Amino acid sequence: MSTSSCSFEDRCVSILCCKFCKQVLSSRGMKAVLLADTEIDLFSTDIPPTNAVDFIGRCYFTEICKCKLKDIACLKCGNIVGYHVIVPCCSCLLSCNNGHFWMFHSQAVYDINRLDATGVNFLLWGNLPEVEENTDEDALDISAEECIR
């Protein structure tokens, strides 16, 4: 993936919550734009959101590019909240991308910026370990109260 000329280190890490039921979907979210149409705002994550979403429906291809996608739905309420890029197309892989293949629709989720260990500053992607000490599942339990507020 071509991320060398692009820097995402200064982006805030977000907790992503389902707008329909307030379920925490990911504790490693990032604001993003659709590569094939930069007018569309999304959120993305780099780690599969286990125990929060599941696949629904059949795989499909976009009209704008040749990525193979499959929708994901919130396990708590069943609403479609985004999609997983099953197979990215060459065009998207070669463009400036963050390497995230789990995408969330901005109409279906909301974000809360995570704080760093001091509890004062926003946590940035450049300061986030590739794999956090807690599993994403543990972090979801801790941050669930954030979505309810």
Could you characterize the architecture of this molecule?
It is built from two helices and nine strands, in the order E-E-E-E-E-E-E-H-E-E-H. The longest helix is centred in the C-terminal third of the chain and has 13 residues, at 136-148. Strands 1, 2, 3, 4, 5, 6, 7, 8 and 9 form a nine-stranded antiparallel sheet that branches. By secondary structure, the chain is mostly beta strands. Residues 133-144 have low confidence and may be disordered. The chain is globular. This is Family with sequence similarity 72 member A. It comes from Suricata suricatta (Meerkat).
Topology at a glance:
Blueprint: E1 14-18, E2 24-34, E3 37-45, E4 53-55, E5 60-61, E6 68-74, E7 80-87, H1 90-94, E8 102-105, E9 109-113, H2 136-148
Antiparallel strand pairs: 1-2, 1-9, 2-3, 3-8, 4-6, 5-6, 6-7, 7-8
The helical percent reads 10-25%
Please report the distance between the alpha carbons of the first and last residues.
Answer: 37 Å
Strand content: 35-45%
Low-confidence regions: 133-144
**C-alpha-based Rg, rounded:** 15 Å
Main sheet makeup:
9 strands, antiparallel
SS element count, helices: 2
- Global geometry: globular
Number of strands: 9
Structural class based on helices, strands and sheet pairing: mainly beta
Could you tell me the mean pLDDT?
82
- Which series of helices and strands comes N to C? EEEEEEEHEEH
Index terms:
2 helices; 9-stranded antiparallel beta sheet; 12% helix; mainly beta; single chain
